Amino acid sequence: MRDKMIIATSLVVLCFAGGIFFNKVYQTPQKSMQIYERALSDYNGGDYSNAYYLFSKVSPMSDLKPIALYRQGESARAIDDNVSAVKKYQLLFKGYKKNPLSIRAKYLSAQLLVDDNPKLAKKYFDQIMQEAPNSDYAIASEYYLGLLIINKYKNSENAIFSASQKQTAENYFRHYLSKAPGGRLANKVVESWLSLEKEISPDDYLLMANTLYLFGEYSRAQEMILKTNEQESWLLNAKNLKALGNISGARVVLNEGLTDFEEYVTEDEIIEAVDLYMELSTASKVNTVNHLKSILSDKGRHYASALDCKYKTNEEKSKCYNQLYINSSDSRFAPKALSEIFLSAVEKKDFSLAKKIGNDYMKKYSDKDEAPMVLFWLGKISEAKKDYSEYMNIYKNVVSNYPDSYYAYRAYLRMNHREQPLLTDYILPKPIEFPYELRNQLLKKLTQLEDYEVLDELLGHDEFVKSWVLYKQGDYSHSMLVARNAMEKLEKKPDKHDLRWRLVYPVHYYEEIKKYADKNGNNPPLMLSLIREESYFNPHASSGVGAKGLMQLMPATADEVALGRGIDYINLLDVESNIRLGNAYYSNIKSALSGMDVSAIASYNGGIGSVTKWKQSLSYVDTDSFVEKIPYDETQNYVKKVFRSYWNYIRIYNGNG
Q1: How confident is the model at residue 656 (pLDDT cuts 50, 70, 90)?
Q2: Do 44 and 76 fall into the same domain?
Q3: Which of 39, 99, 168, 322 is the right S-S partner for 55, CB 3.0 to 4.6 Å?
Q4: Model confidence, pTM
């Protein structure tokens, strides 16, 4: 009986103690969220000591605990308490091995241990290379592993830095520069490599020179280039000489490289070199292309022929592209050549031949850049023949298969028998949201907590998530560009309601845009589209020729418009001033061109004088024909990009398309 009483009493004590422990450890999810939120607020406000303390109060039972440990490590590191930082990182990667932050925590620990505990640092770096060999942390680890070898001999008077150890360090540095020539540590890699004081091969000097070029150290890069093999470094040499302002020297190097060393570079590098040569040449485009044709062979031959066709007169162009297609049917230039042959047949109104060529193109190249254009013009051929069911079906296919393209916009207009280029002046801006449905509760919490740094680390491999993080951090231009490039890579485009589209076509400064567009009789979504293409929503954008701000106005133009309209403005980098003046300028252009928006958009890029001349000299039957015949590639592409943006803003935010 006495034993039973002792056991009962013990159980009561244990339960009581367990209750105290449970109450100490257990938190409701809401309480953990509140603690983490306060800690993150202190961290972002620079109160790292209090943030460290508050993050420690997140319950071990919460799914936020490993993130809180990481944040404790970051807080300690911010106040140079490296010992505490390492301890927290270690708790994370040892206690939560499968957590996505584990590798980063191990990397940060190893970084902090390089000087104080190099043996343990090496162990961690080696583990990172084994556990995450394709990660950026593995690449960075190669630098530190090489550095640890150097430090070992630098910090010991009696140690002999053997040739084999130098070779091992050099291998680490070589691997880093081969994988990440523009990486954050690449400049340090070059310095550490040079400190080995061993013979360096021409190929390795080329790796170093490329890194120095990418970091803008052009004079030092030139010193390295002189120690490389000329046949392998000529393209880098030319780019570096251009950066140094030695244009004539760059031309000489390009000419020699394209003549004698074509076999040592890839086809992509040949194309880059040819484009640079075209840019730097003082001769006419035609004469420059003729010279290139005379010196290029193998990899560059087809590209030279493509450029030759591009600068031919209209009478010679069709024949040139025919010959190019015959000679290079298996090259990357074949789709462009066939599309030009198709357009030539359309212009000549040889619809039977054009239809045959167009159908052939779509069978072979439906995934190529020119495909939406070819399909759209096949629709116009059917429309010219008054085959209603066929052309409606073709236009629907353009909108369905290439939904975000300029030609989807033009097809939509044709389907609805609209002659005016503007669909509406109304959009309903919607907020940027996380681009995916979140089923993971931890990610949901971090989104609600606005812990963008950790979200980027956990999901940053997804470009749309990276775009969203950049947007939330206020970097609108970079955000849009990342999302745009990610969308371009998708073979099949998502539905227009997909949240990723809002990142590609975000709505910024719309209150000011609408205010001044309405005041000047402009279309607000069109002005939004123009700003997107001009500056990517960067109010501090500045071009090489001096255009400034969101609408990329030249100062002299802005002053002229301001004087004519009686506008006082702050400066062109001021958002409201720029949008006000830009809308006034666009209104002036549009009025001078009979209120035609397509002509005004072309003039905004190519100049009103050029557009007036084209409208008088070009033979065209409608807007589609005029745009295809704009002789300046930059201006033609600009018109298509602005109206493509306009179309996408309407379909994403207004339900059309």
Answers
A1: low
A2: yes
A3: 39
A4: 0.89
